[in-house]
Amino acid sequence: MPLSRNTIGAVFVGGALILTLSALAYPAMLGVETTSANTSRIIANTPYGPLTEADRDFVVKVRAAGLWEYPLGEMSMNRGTSKEMKEAGEHLVVGHAGLDAMCRKIAPELNITLPNQASPQQQQFVATVDSKSGKEFDSTAVAIMRVTHGQIFPVIAKIRATTQNTLVRQLADLANDTVLDHITVLEKTKLVNFDQVNFQQTTPPKLPKEQLTPPAPQPGSPVVVLTPRPDLEVNTASPTPSPSAG
User: Of 34, 117, 135, 215, whose CB has the highest number of CB atoms within 10 Å?
Assistant: First the structure.
């Protein structure tokens, strides 16, 4: 069964955290703008190849993204005012369930601890969208999600190009397809302001690290599972490019 509103509330403990208006206007993916110079440092040698700080952080980023975008996808399915908006919600739910399954599969192999909650900033994204209704719900959700997907896209490419770890490489392959699919369905809503999106993607706010970092799970707590939804019959593989005009 999909996450209920009560479950969403449990996942997003502290979702009412107040951030600055600029932080809401210019969302940034977890840690993208705070990448340190040491992320290429190898932190473990595994049977699947060396694991760098960047590799580990990428797995955590993908997991954290699902913890807020999956519930937002459910909201879009239920509250979106157009067929395209509901379709985008379905793709978010199916895509992040697939990514989450892979994160949960590879994390124990790589000795990576996964969060059970999104970062405070990401929790606030959901709270902000949840406070809207009607067309404003649609436009707010699309604006936030299109910017965050656009920001993580080049991060995926860099990880795919540089990682020597085969499990991280597989996750990057799936993330590339999924994020491209999500960008495509969000653009199909015709609610994307490309000038605004391009500006926000390249000028994220400078936020304290604690607002960008998902809290560590309580010791012994069960891992939150994003429920697969094969009943939606959605394919989130990389979409075929549309032919250009002229």
Answer: 117
